[in-house]
Specification:
The structure holds two protein chains of two kinds. By secondary structure, chain A is mainly alpha-helical. Chain A is 72% helix and 4% strand. The N and C termini of chain B lie close together (10 Å). Classes of the chains: A mainly alpha, B mainly alpha.
Chain lengths: 310, 339
């Protein structure tokens, strides 16, 4: 018997379970729609240079704080400013004559970067703190939980706004601020899961065999906390982009001229009645991006939760 | 435990949280910025004398724990510092701007709760019908939409293309504000019988409150629908039906009451979320409230004002949570106070 067959036999029930879940997922129209939207966004970001019709230049400057920063520069065409959508400019042009379609295509890269950076970093912090708090309990649990209480008592957008203002406006600082705001969500989820699984017989068995605490957390407890976390992470990918766009709109994010969706809406606001396309299309890009992750998250919740699936 | 004892206990428990919040705002305003005095003086363009004066006033040369002591002391005396944008105490600015925000968020909350619950129930009762599909689609789009974009699109449609509603601000041009009682124009004009102002203020509230309520409405709709679906399957509903009660009585008298429990929690959490949304909504609709004030403060690096707003938001949020917990125990007798 080959290695593969043996593996297959050993994991028979798990494979069956996965197949069943995948099948449920495939038959849910909205979940598939979400997945397709996300895949489209990822492909757009990956192949942006081939999809876009115009391309930015990147220049490296020294900012007022003395840091080297790379900024986008688009070619200015004042002779083509605020042109409505046409075959040449699919989504029209803005007040500098930049092609809005191309900016949205390149903007997808920034949105995915923001979403991944914030969610993954916050997740790592949250999982570590939540696991420690839940597993060891005592003063550590008390401390971590009271700190999350404090973070939860200020609306996220407002707290992120205050942090970004203190750090100074830039897209990196928006990301840092959002990480600071976001980690308590994961800490709470993981802690609750750990508390639930800690008392299970199989964890007790592992402990009596002399397995180290670290190994118990990583091999036994965390894998079983996967489902609720996965749903939350999916939904948060969208929520992060939505919040970042809001902060950009206020003027705290990327520097003017960058292809960032929230910022594009912000600069288009002055021309809303002359050039609806300037505001409409970047907004649609945000809606589709966030909608994709929300639909997928919704679908995942339905198939991963045993109570809801049959 | 009696209700009064419970409230007192909860209020006592709030103290460490609020102290924690002040630690957070202190860190944001005094520890993170590289040059705090310059920050408070208005950034790069500030003149050296102002910076020196602020360094002195804020005791910036002393150790951090002492600075925090001074900061707390000021807060306890109701002193949130000087608002640099408007050259007056932050508390005065808050007093002026708070009613406009209160009016907008309260109306938005009422809209979200009423429409959210009604559509949620209808969607659950007519499960898998086209009404259900449409409402669910609207609900999921609602939470996926940037609120500022929705605001701009509504302005474009209903104030420009089909100009049936005013573009922005709280009252029409030439309409005098009603006599100040609470600062909520709808309430004040109603009490004083000023119908011109009443009509104008309601008119001006329509677009901003729809914008602000949309996301919360979507969330309330979703939670009402799913909890309704769960309740309808329970045994006591089957009993009620078996007794021969009319379907309407079963749904509205028996099911809805229990289905609303999770809805209330979500609505309470959302009230605080509305404050965040108000920041963006007020900016677009030129609504003279706290949110617009906060954005102006952020853009002017006016830290005392930003911190004042953040503290206020925290107070509103913990109060909303407290009220939710109290309502919870009233609606669900199984929840014993103090557990």
């Amino acid at each position: 018997m080959g290695f593969f067959d043996e593996w297959k036999k050993r994991n028979e029930s798990r494979i069956k379970e996965t197949k069943f879940t995948l099948n449920l997922f495939r038959h849910s129209f909205l979940s598939m729609l979400g997945l397709v939207l996300i895949l489209l966004m990822i492909l757009t970001a990956l192949f942006a240079p081939f999809i876009a019709t115009e391309h930015p230049n990147y220049v490296t400057l020294i900012n007022p704080q003395g840091k080297r920063v790379t900024e986008q520069r688009w070619e200015i065409h004042f002779d083509e400013k605020l042109e409505p959508p046409s075959s040449e400019h699919l989504f029209g042009t803005n007040d500098y004559g930049y092609d809005i379609f191309s900016m949205i295509v390149y903007g997808s890269r920034l949105s995915i970067k923001i979403a991944l950076m914030v969610v993954v970093t916050a997740l790592i912090i949250g999982v570590v703190l939540g696991a420690l708090a839940g597993y060891f309990g005592g003063w550590m649990d008390e401390l971590v939980m009271r700190v999350t209480d404090i973070f939860f008592s200020i609306p996220g957008l407002i707290l992120a706004m205050a942090f970004t203002a203190a750090l100074g406006r830039s897209i990196e600082h928006v990301m840092y601020a959002m990480i600071i705001v976001w980690w308590p969500v994961y800490t709470r989820i993981i802690r609750a899961q750990v508390l639930k699984t800690r008392e299970e017989t199989y964890v007790e068995a592992a402990r009596s065999l002399g397995t180290t605490d670290l190994k118990i957390i990583f091999k036994h407890i965390l894998p079983n906390s996967f489902a609720p976390l996965f749903v939350q992470v999916t939904m948060d990918m969208g929520a992060v982009v939505l919040t970042a766009a809001g902060l950009s709109f206020i003027g705290l994010g990327a520097s003017p001229g960058t292809a960032e969706w929230g910022l594009m809406i912000s600069s288009g606001r002055a021309y809303i009645f002359q050039a609806w396309w300037y505001v409409f299309f970047p907004g649609m890009a945000i809606v589709l991006f966030v909608l994709g992750f929300n639909l997928l998250g919704d679908g995942l919740r339905d198939v991963l939760d045993p109570k809801l699936r049959r | 435990m009696k209700l009064r004892d419970y409230i007192i206990r909860r209020l006592v428990l709030l103290i460490p949280i609020l102290i924690g919040v002040t630690l957070l705002t202190f860190t944001i305003s005094h520890v993170i910025p590289a040059d705090v005095a310059r920050h408070f003086a208005g950034g790069a363009k500030a003149n050296p004398e102002t910076i020196a004066r602020i360094r002195e006033e804020m005791h910036l040369d002393e150790p951090l724990y002492k600075q925090y002591g001074y900061y707390l002391n000021d807060l306890f005396h109701g002193d949130l510092g000087e608002c640099y944008t408007e050259r007056r105490p932050v508390t005065e600015a808050i007093k002026q701007y708070l009613p406009a925000t209160a009016e907008l968020t309260i109306i938005a909350m009422i809209l979200a709760i009423f429409i959210g619950i009604i559509t949620g129930v209808v969607s659950a009762v007519k499960r898998n019908s086209w009404i259900d599909h449409v409402t669910r689609l609207i609900a999921i789009t609602g939470v996926s939409m940037p609120i500022f974009w929705l605001a701009l699109m509504l302005q474009l449609a209903f104030a420009y293309k089909y100009p049936i509603l005013p573009l922005d601000s709280r009252l029409g041009i030439g309409v005098v504000a009603p006599n100040h009682i609470t600062g909520l124009y709808v309430f004040d004009s109603l009490v004083t019988g000023n119908f011109t102002a009443l009509k104008s203020s309601i008119y001006h509230l329509i677009l901003p409150s729809i914008t602000l309520s949309f996301a919360s409405l979507a969330i309330i709709l979703r939670i009402t629908r799913s909890s309704m679906l769960e309740i309808v399957r329970s045994d006591y509903i089957r009993t009620a039906r078996a007794k021969g009660l009319r379907e309407r009585t079963v749904i509205y008298k028996h099911a809805l009451r229990n289905a609303l429990i999770p809805t209330i929690t979500v609505a309470g959490i959302n009230f605080a979320y509305l404050l965040g949304g108000a920041v963006l909504t007020e900016t677009i609709f030129n609504w003279p409230g706290m949110g617009r004030f906060a954005v102006a403060a952020v853009n002017n690096l006016d830290f005392p004002s930003v911190m004042g707003f953040t503290l206020l938001a925290a107070i509103v949020m913990v109060t909303a949570n407290l009220i939710v917990d109290l309502l919870y125990s009233v609606l669900d007798p199984r929840v014993r106070l103090g557990d």
